[in-house]
Amino acid sequence: MSLRHAMLGLLARGPASGYDLLKLFEISLANVWPATQSQVYAELGRLADADLVKVAAEGPRGRKEYAITDDGVAELRHWLTDVEPNRVGRSDMLLRVFFLDSVDHGQAREYLERQAVVAARSHQSLLGLRDVVAGSDPLETYGRIALEYGLRLTSMQREWAEWAAGEIDRQPGT
Amino acid sequence: MSLRHAMLGLLARGPASGYDLLKLFEISLANVWPATQSQVYAELGRLADADLVKVAAEGPRGRKEYAITDDGVAELRHWLTDVEPNRVGRSDMLLRVFFLDSVDHGQAREYLERQAVVAARSHQSLLGLRDVVAGSDPLETYGRIALEYGLRLTSMQREWAEWAAGEIDRQPGT
DNA sequence: CCGAACATGTAAGCAGTTACATGATTCC
DNA sequence: GGAATCATGTAACTGCTTACATGTTCGG
């Protein structure tokens, strides 16, 4: 139930509407925990039912501004410190690697080279993001730490894919 | 629909029953694309309906051995070469990092140090796996490449988490 | 003979995606 | 006046998890 906690985490920084939360998911959480509009509104309802958030104000166009409650803060802290992150990562990029022996060496190499390019591109786009956010951090230490993870991950992926593409030619067969 | 393709990929190596596939998921795909018993049997039914696999033999205890069909091989190759891997990774470990400003510095540092230990542990377990599989590879080039990904990932995670834990003390606040 | 391993299936429920549906306000 | 943006909600469907349910064969 991480969507729930992502929303609590965002609301811990200040009140927001469903619409606001959606924007925050798109700009800052897109690469970590994407969420759709329909999910956000539905979960806000459940959070309110559970008294982890409450409607703090209503605005024009039916806008409902939600604020986190004390129970919500407690739940967020509990999740942060007591619940083990789950380590099962599904990667359909890596899954394909397992089955690359079903195509010929040329296609396998192409696949890996393409992944190297994609990783390099992601890396560049994260570098761009870093420059945009550059000055703004008094509280943003943790945002920077998460961004650094992305930079290191995409570097690693690029290097690995290039190495792997090279390995293929060292093998006998098609 | 990657479960479907994971199953086709495994069946491309030779016929297997649902039970066999389940074992293969547990031993070789557990860290890349986990699957449960109930998923595997249900998907085998759908694959057979779509003529991507067929029952090739029946054995004792109701055992049904499935073999991939030509259509199945075509579908697998199509997925390998024409379908872009989806790049949205959900990480509940990284999601927590964004919200670590909701707890004090000590708890945040503890969290990151714990992640460093977990990563180191995973790394060790992959090294163990590498030794087990060591001699067996004529076909297993791609298994080794995937394993190398895991090794590089867990190294990166350990280094990052240690670096991040250090960063926290450089910040003002609680 | 008994326990472990082999073997298959169904059902309920939760999480996530895509598509549908509607309406109000602001800015130009 | 009209387009963009703000704003909320519902419905259908797919994929995954957990739990239930049952029966067979092999090895010691």
Automatic annotation (TrEMBL), chains A, B:
Residues 7-77 form the Transcription regulator PadR N-terminal domain. Coiled coil: none annotated. Residues 90-168 form the Transcription regulator PadR C-terminal domain. Pfam families: PadR, Vir_act_alpha_C. InterPro entries: Tscrpt_reg_PadR_C, Tscrpt_reg_PadR_N, WH-like_DNA-bd_sf, WH_DNA-bd_sf. This is PadR family transcriptional regulator. It comes from Microtetraspora glauca.
